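#structure-requests
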Amino acid sequence: MNHACAFGGEMRARHCNVNRFSFRHRGFQSLRWLCCGAWVLFFSAGFTVSAAEDEMTREDIRAALAARPRMLRSSSSRVVIVGHNARENLLVSRWAEELLSRIKALDRVPVSFSRVSPFSIHIVSSSEKTPGAEAAWMETPGRRMVLSDVALVDTYEVANVFCRGVLQACVLDVARRRVASGEKGATVRVRDVPSWVSVGLARNLYVVNRRADRNRVLAQWQSGALLPISHFFRTMGDARLKQDPAVMGCLVRWLLDGTDAATVWTDLFDTLASGISLDFEWVVGVSQGVQTPVEFEQVWDRWLLAQRRTVLLPGETSKEDVQRLCAALLLYPGGFGIPLDDQPLRPIPWDRLVTRREARWMDSFSRSKAVDLHIVGAGCGDDVKRVVNAYCVFLGALTTGAEVPRLNRFLIDACGERDRLLLKWASEEENPANDGGVKEHYEGT
């Protein structure tokens, strides 16, 4: 009995202890779940704030990437374009490669600056543009060109800056190679490429500008208005005198036409890399067969005279071609076998040749004048050739003893072709879009 009571009391005590433990365990478990929920809420809130912060950071990164200039290497890797607009970068890259290919096509300019340190063109963004700023300019030390407006990339001024930058890059490469080889006295402090070299090179990249420069300089030379080259170099540094770009173009063309032109350009880079300026004495020194400045002027005059018979754009007619043809159609006493008379300065009308068709000098005159007209029309367009052929038919009829009505008909046909040519060019000169053959924008050939 006592044992049974004792066993019952022990069981009740154990049951009470288990109940107390179960209650405590359930309370601890509830507390644990409560704490876990608090931690979950805390971390979820933290993750939400962190995600928002990350989202703001990504937006900032996108804005920073959009504001950062983009870099594009040209196809030859010699030019690097830096700008904010990918389309403008590609446009300028193609333009730079085209100018480089045209410089190399001259076949006399050794363009060989390194791909490791390429020539760079930086395009100014719309927010950085300054009103009234130049279209392009070079920044020291000569490897960086700044372009303010992509729309002006095809203009002569921008091409001039590009040529000056490319030539300066070649000079810097020569100086750096000297310093790397340990040459005594070598330094990277070089002379700047003079304007007459860069401007002249830019004028020779396109045939249309080359022809315009030749015609302009020839007109000055024939009228006696062209100053000696020595005077051109003496007044180079005078800011009050504006140098004629046409003379610069012809002077560089003269360097390119020489038989040893590649050596001349190599000497040009070496001279500037040595810190020596390019003056008139340097030009005389690199000229073949020239010992004194007087001899150079004579060689220069002979070269200009040879340019009169040089056809730069075969099959095309220029304003100068029409002017030369009109001058060739003027007949004066004493010319081509025509005897002198009392009025040697007055032109002879062509119809007078019909009345004097039986003169002894008519045969030699007709043959020599026909050759002269064919020379004038060589390389010109079909409109000039039609005029030349019509007058040559008339001259040929004079030598064969044709009858007067036939001669008059041939002369009327020739005058009609001449009048149609003059009327065509008079209408083109009245057109504001026509620039008379001188194009400051690079177009076509």
